[in-house]
Amino acid sequence: MTTPNPNPSPTLLKPAKPVGIIGYGAYVPRYRLPAREVARVWTGGKGGLPIKEKAVPGLDEDVITMSIEAARNAMKRAQIDPTELRAVWVGSESHPYAVKPTSTVVAEAIGAVPNTQAADWEFACKAGTEAMVAAMGLVGSGMGHYAMAIGMDTAQGKPGDALEYTAGAGGGAYILGPAEESLAVINASYSYVTDTPDFWRREYQKYPEHGMRFTGEPAYFKHVSEAATHLMEASGTTAKDYKWAVFHQPNTKFPQRVAGQLGFSKEQIEPGLLVPVIGNTYAGAAMIGLTATLDIAQPGDRILVVSFGSGAGSDAFDIVVTDKVTERAGLATKTQEYIARRAEIDYATYVRYRGKLAMK
Amino acid sequence: MEIPRHWRLKKQRYGLVGEVCPHCDAKIFPPRDVCPNCGDEAKELYTFSGKGEVYSYTTIYEAPAGYDTNAPYTVAIVKLEEGPMVTAQLTDVDNDRVEIGMPVEMVTRKMRNDGDERGLIVYGYKFRPR
């Protein structure tokens, strides 16, 4: 016997109890590699550049250390005791260990252990938003009052490959809780997933492979458009109902083009379009686009967020900012402050920092 | 392999968790269960703010094993706002820009591999300019 689905729009992911974001935090490492440096070394400086520069982690940074800093920023804004977190989830495609969780180190460092769920999520670039959807479920079902979802990456790019120009580092952390405590309420999410082989990295391989132009139409554009369109149709909204929109951003052109196709203006995506100055932060990209947008958002602003993960899928979120954003946005370092904290490096330093030199 | 030691010290290393003396309110780091100020028992945990300033520093060019891939780097004695002095690496800073009195804040970073790249990754506190 089946029971009727209480969800009025059965394909939407809508929690039983309303949930929202009670705290958020960003992190971007200090070093920047200009795209012209990659071009200087590999193409004699010829050809167009997909971004201006990308963020590069220092020698002592990885997804664990970067997640800890973003998580601490989220804790400062949420103003809760870390022992109240019932989940610490980290989505990434650059977890430092093949076996041993990132999330337990993060949970320990912020003081959330031991009464908590901890897990690492993987789905190429949408591992972070996956964790966020799961956190909506955990909080929205009443299993836990607060849950943390992080999307963070130190992306890999093969030397000389098109991806080396853009593979950046950074991400965001979110604490989800009851809607009434939120600085932004998440009305609903929607996920669109198919088996589409546009980008992958096999086990034990250092660098990913991609399907060149196949990464565009059947992968990024198809999944992002379908997710956004379906969420808006089911929510009874159009592009005009949103003050801001954030799309996954592997380069500057893709999010601009998909935004235009969906009826969004350049102004609507401007605060969350960070790829030109920090690169593609993979599992962190949509997450940090949203932190930058929340930093400047006003109460009542509605935000559409659509991630994309190769393989492939998109998670779309319909978010409305509450009046609590005004008091909490200033409680931790803002995304643009991290972006402004910048030290330019050359290709040789980048090669050293990213461990691309064989030392033995 | 020093797994038990890394595991035992993780709280103080990841989050600068020390102790506070219930008798004289002195903040203690590293935690030692006996107050260095009044000599009484002090086991209550205390998380430091992580803010402090450079009391003294030196730049390491010939680093000990395990740290050599990061050289040159600067090590400082940092005077924490709550009082104690800690020795730690500085990070996210150009070595020639470090000054005595420079305000710094704690960050959790990768210290080294325990052994080689097959070993445990050891994380701990460093300080960066604020």
Structure description:
The complex is a heterodimer of chains A (360) and B (130). Chain A is an alpha/beta fold and 360 residues long. Chain A has 2 domains: 19-183 and 333-353, Thiolase/Chalcone synthase (Peroxisomal Thiolase, Chain A, domain 1); 187-327, Peroxisomal Thiolase, Chain A, domain 1. Chain A has 12 helices and 14 strands. In chain A, strands 5-4-6-7-1-8-13-12-11 form a 9-stranded mixed sheet, with helices on both faces. Chain A has a 3-stranded mixed sheet with strand order 3-2-14. In chain A, strands 9-10 form a two-stranded antiparallel ribbon. In chain A, helix 2 packs across helix 3. Chain A is globular, with a radius of gyration of 19 Å. Chain A starts with 18 loop residues before the first strand and ends in a 7-residue tail after the last helix. Chain B is mainly beta and 130 residues long. Chain B has one domain (3-129). Chain B is 9% helix and 41% strand. Chain B contains 2 helices and 8 strands. Chain B has a 5-stranded antiparallel sheet with strand order 6-5-4-7-8. Chain B has a 3-stranded antiparallel sheet with strand order 2-1-3. The N and C termini of chain B lie far apart (35 Å). In chain B, 26% of the residues are buried.
